[in-house]
Amino acid sequence: MIETKIEARQEMLSSIREHLAASARFDAQAAHPQTAQRRTQSNSATDARNGTVLDLFRQALEAVSGHCSIVQSIDEAARAVQQVVDERKARRVAVSDSIVVKRILGQLKTEAVFLDAPNQSELFECDMGITATQWAIAETGTLVLESERERHRLASLVPPVHVAIIEAGRIRRTMSEILQLIKNSEVGLSRTVTFITGPSRTSDIELTLAIGVHGPGELHVIVIDEPAQPA
Amino acid sequence: MNHPTETAEATGYGPPNAFDQNVLKALGDEQLHSALRNLVVTFGSKRQAAINSVEDWEGLRDEARAIKDETLAHLDRYLEEFANNAERAGAQMHWARDGHEVSNIIIRLLHERNAKRVVKSKSMATEEIHLNSALEDAGIETVETDLGEWIIQLACETPSHIVVPAIHKSKKQIADLFVAKIGIEPTDDVAKLTSAARRVLRQRFAEADAGISGVNFGVAETGTILILENEGNIRLTTSLPKIHIAVMGIEKVIPHFADLDVFLKLLPRSGTGQQLTAYQSLITGTKKRPADEGPEELHIILMDNGRSRMLAHPVTRQSLACIRCGACLNACPVYQQIGGHAYGSVYPGPIGAVITPQLIGLSKATQLPYASSLCGACREVCPVKIDIPALLLHLRSEVVEGTAAGSADQKGPVKRKFAERLAFRLYAFAWSRPFLYEWAARIARLAQRLIVRQGRIGKVSGLVARIAPPFGAWTACRDAPPIAQRTFREQWREDSKIK
Fold it and tell me: Å from B170 to nearest chain A CA?
């Protein structure tokens, strides 16, 4: 089996090389203009919208049907989470192992059960998931989750409601900044990085938008924007 | 249940070489037309709005094309780099020369692990090789989990669009299908249909032994695969089961991690008119610690299946720059009239008309390069600036010259070539001599009396069509004005005499 594997690999690579070599004489004739060189300027989206990165993030998130609350402290964040838990009447909540999430859970007054490493059948019965998130992209309202930093892959995906907590200082304007950050992260490039932009959606039936097909149908993002402490 | 031949029967459309008959069938399908009108209007306007939100769309397209050109020119090197880095991160790499090898590798992996139930996310590469029927034959139960693909699978059909595979089906048809197959109460509420699908598919995810996905981009620099989606089924497919198998066409590799920025701006805007789809999963190898979430094994299968052949000429090589956004389908006046099934292959529309003949052999799809008016709308919208009209012409010339690699039946083209050459020689000879030109016009004016009806040249049949078949074919569905009783040259001459 291993021999076939090596053989297939060698054959595919030589096929590529042979066909590329066969193309050389046509390539020379075709005055195929070499398309633009890699550009140095960034392809930042146009911002008719004014304001801080935080304002941009909120607008973009709301444009894709996500909910955004901006709070000034971890206590306020806990109150915001409490409100969602009460409104959704959550009974079983999948949570990640993030420290911020743990601190918030400690302040909640609820009868809901919190599961920080649910098995699969428990997970499928959860009616809410609470996680933190490592980064966010303002232009598109996108959350960026690094698997090396937090166990949040399933809690952010399986339950019908996802509550995500992020510090305002971790929001960047563009995708290109984020790609650099996650690639050069001090914990290394995570095995899985997940970008989340709004709730799960589909238009597969007559192009009619339906929310919450496989992933969460509701996304609540709570941004903690602590005022700078006077020195 | 899902064999390629049977699926063709379920849609009622024939293979690519039955294109002419397929077109007639499609043109008679009123419901298909209203679905296509909806597609064109909705995706057209959303795409335009999404493009307007980028400063320099043209620059982005150029940049994307430059990245693809660079990759394809050194594809061997980038593939090796990709494979080495993915392996270093814990992925297991497989190389497959054709579709059979892909299916065999997957079946072997599943059998070795006693995996019987598979969840799949939408992947054109696996559609291309009819993976589902191969798995079925091997006793493996495979469930498509993308809503549109699942609908198609329940109906035993094939996708009719790259991005929205069930676009040809109405809400009513889908509701009837769900009533019959999963026993829901009749409804015309899309939200209810969607939640019924969620409920049934949740069970499939819970039971699945393995997940199979496609790949949108493979980054050589890091060995990362990136997959885009809106529904969350890809995240479930690649997170819940113990094994994740990703099938990746060799053209999906790009050099640098930073290049993703360009493609993540282009693909969602071109495909669905979104600034970004709801989810992107960037997967680099397998988990580091047993306690981590996610599959224990990641297998990436690199698939050639006719792709490396396309590298042999700069015109055909462009086909490999395609990022499968579907924008050319939505923009194409031909696709807008006939939909996807008429192309008789998993890749419909303008890009299908150029990719299918190259993948399955030109002789099996001689009509597809002609399935275009060469208007260039596809080239205008293509996010990687593929010159599809040039490709169509290139393939047409291969059809005529019979030079296509692997085209066995060269008799037809060669014979036609002789008659055509003779006709065009005569034409050139007569039309370059004013005297002959005028006489030809006079003779034609007399001869046309046989075929002019009520002042027009209508459908030509009978003797004329038999003597000169092209007349019959040309006039079968068009009429033409007859040659004027006094030509311009005659009028000019006579009027100058009067003066």
Answer: 6
Interchain contact A187–B (C-beta under 8 A): no
Across the interface, whether the CB atoms of A204 and B165 are under 8 A apart is answered yes
With 90 as the cut, is the pLDDT of residue A130 above it? Answer: yes
Contacts of B313 in chain A (CB under 8 A): 22-23, 26
3-state secondary structure of B409: coil
Range in A167-171, A178-182, B167-171, B406-410 with the lowest mean pLDDT: B406-410
Q: How far apart are CA A26 and CA B256, in angstroms?
A: 28
> How is the beta sheet containing B279-283 ordered, strand by strand?
A171-172, A135-137, A142-146, A192-196, B279-283, B224-229, B217-219, B253-254
Cβ–Cβ below 8 Å for A206 and B171: yes
pLDDT for res B451 = 80
Cβ of A200 within 8 Å of Cβ of B283? The answer is: no
Give the integer Cα–Cα distance in Å for A64 and B276. Answer: 10
Q: Which of B180, B163, B283, B234 is nearest to A213 (CA)?
A: B234
| Residue B349 region by backbone torsions, left for phi larger than 0, else alpha for psi between -120 and 50, else beta | left
Residue A95: its H or E element: strand A92-95
DSSP H/E element including A192 = strand A192-196
Picking from B241, B279, B119, B88, the residue whose alpha carbon sits closest to that of residue A191 is: B88
In the chain, the amino acid numbered B148 is G
**Rounded CA separation A172/B95 (Å):** 39
Q: Which residue of A has its CA nearest to B59?
A: A36
A33: pLDDT strictly greater than 70: no
Place of tokens 């996708």: B159
Option in A5, A27, A199 nearest B95 (CB): A5
Check residue A1 and give its pLDDT. 61
Q: Is A131 on the interface with B (CB under 8 A)?
A: no
**Residue B378 near residue B388, CB atoms below 8 Å:** yes
A31 in contact with B, Cβ within 8 Å: no
- Give the Cα separation of A105 and A124 in Å (integer): 21
Size of interface A-B (CB pairs under 8 A): 255
Domains of chain A (ranges, CATH numbers): 53-224 (3.40.50.10420)
| Chain B: residue whose CA lies nearest to A29 | B314
Identify the segments of chain B with pLDDT beneath 70.
1-9, 403-417, 498-499
Domain B4-20+51-308 is of which CATH architecture? Answer: 3-Layer(aba) Sandwich (3.40)
Instruction: Enumerate the domain spans of chain B.
Output: 4-20+51-308, 433-498
What DSSP line would sit under B276-332, residue for residue?
Answer: S-SEEEEE-SS-SSTTSSS-SEEEEEEE-TTTGGGGGSHHHHGGGG-----HHHHH-
Quickly tell me which residue has 């399908």 as its tokens. B29
- Which residues of chain A are within 8 Å of residue B258 when distances are taken between CB atoms? 176, 179-180, 183
Does any CB of chain A come closer than 8 Å to the CB of residue B278?
yes
Taking an 8 Å cut-off on Cβ atoms, the answer to whether A154 and B164 are in contact is no
Stated pTM of the model: 0.89
